[in-house]
Known about the structure:
Layout: E1 4-7, H1 11-23, E2 27-33, H2 40-44, E3 47-52, H3 63-73, E4 77-79, H4 89-97, E5 101-102, H5 107-114, H6 116-125, H7 141-151, E6 155-163, E7 166-171, H8 174-192, E8 197-201, E9 207-215, E10 221-233, E11 236-242, H9 249-265, E12 270-278, E13 284-290, H10 297-304, H11 308-316, E14 333-340, E15 342-343, E16 349-350, E17 353-354, E18 357-359, E19 366-370, E20 377-378, E21 385-393, H12 396-409, E22 411-413, H13 419-426, H14 429-432, H15 440-447
Parallel strand pairs: 1-2, 1-4, 2-3, 4-5
Antiparallel strand pairs: 6-7, 6-8, 9-10, 9-12, 10-11, 11-14, 12-13, 14-21, 15-16, 17-20, 18-22, 19-21
Helix pairs in contact: 4-5, 6-9, 7-8, 12-13
Amino acid sequence: MIQKVLIANRGEIALRVIRACRELGIKTLAVYSEADVQSLHVQLADEAICIGGPKSADSYLRADRIISAAEIADVDAIHPGYGFLSENAKFAEQCESCNIKFIGPKSKSIRIMGDKSIAKDTVRKAGVPTVPGSDGPVESEAEAVKTARKIGYPVIIKAVAGGGGRGMRIAHNDVSFAKEYHVARAEAEKAFGNGAVYIEKYIQNPRHIEFQILADSHGKVLHLGERDCSVQRRHQKLIEEAPSPFLNADLRKKMGKAAVRAAESAEYQNAGTIEFLVDPKGNFYFIEMNTRIQVEHPVTEEVTGIDLIKQQIRVANGEKLDLDQGDITWTKHAIECRINAEDPARNFTPSPGTISLYYAPGGNGVRVDSHVYSGYTIPPYYDSMIGKLICFGETRKVALQRSYRALSEYLVRGIKTTIPLHKAIMSDPTFIEGKATTAYMEDFMARTPPDLF
């Protein structure tokens, strides 16, 4: 049984794992970079070990140092959180070989779903709809152009090893394709050390809807419903909600079954997410699987009442899920706003620095997951997210009203944040009516005066 967990991450997700472990009576070890000595996860863990310099490459991406810390502190398991090494099959394999439980899927499943072309082929064989595209990576510009013409413009070029919107480019004709193909390859090589790309049909104005998966090591695979992640900027999610205002009961059932088949095709275990694009007519297409806990997992927790981090730990312990698909109910509506240290009025320029005043909102139906506080200095080396505001209620209208109210109470001084942006979105008619697609943010920013932020 797991008695001590190393959290191979930082920020709010590290804090989230510590809290779940504490409720389960499990001890925790925080690892941290020199830049994160002030972070709350370091202060609240039972033990903490510094593993390197401020940059991720010198600390949170150093698998050897994390494994060494695990061995020194004699931990039973490692929780990778999201980002960093969470979807690194080699790291999961190293944990397995060191007899340390990796609180996530097996390395084999990460490999299958980590290569987007292999993942697409795998789920297609399981009868899951996929976006029309190349059979695998395209090796040359000539081959790529030929494939794009066959699919039909517009197309999207995607990094095989991609994520977070990097290595993704849209082309509308042969001329733009030639340029975007090379840009996508260069971005992919720089970000992932792998310049391979594949081509897909670009679905215009879709919804981005993902299904939360939970699977144990005894063959049971469940879905916990969907999250609508359509409000994005440059493929980076800003707002997530559950359930989606777009899906009806029939489409939800079809997509849920497809998500379960996709997970089963990879022999998946633990928590993961199947991501789909849904066109205006309700046709849905698999795009990828995230083989880790998601940033937006609290949305699902609040509408289902299921603690996903605790379930991850129990699955890693070899326990059977004590739930059946029929037990999953969605009794609330929840909306999550990602609070980033960025200036929306200046093209979302990062805003690191010291927080002079921090006050998180509260009250009925309000949850804040954050690792910052008054006097905390946000380092410039990592993702700009400093917290997540999750508001929930019996209906979407209540969740919207609470979100606007909570955002009005949320005070962060000393830096710029996206709080004013979220507040403006919560009062925008298109969002209120539930009509936001992946094209929403571009339109919203074009018609919203910068001084509103």
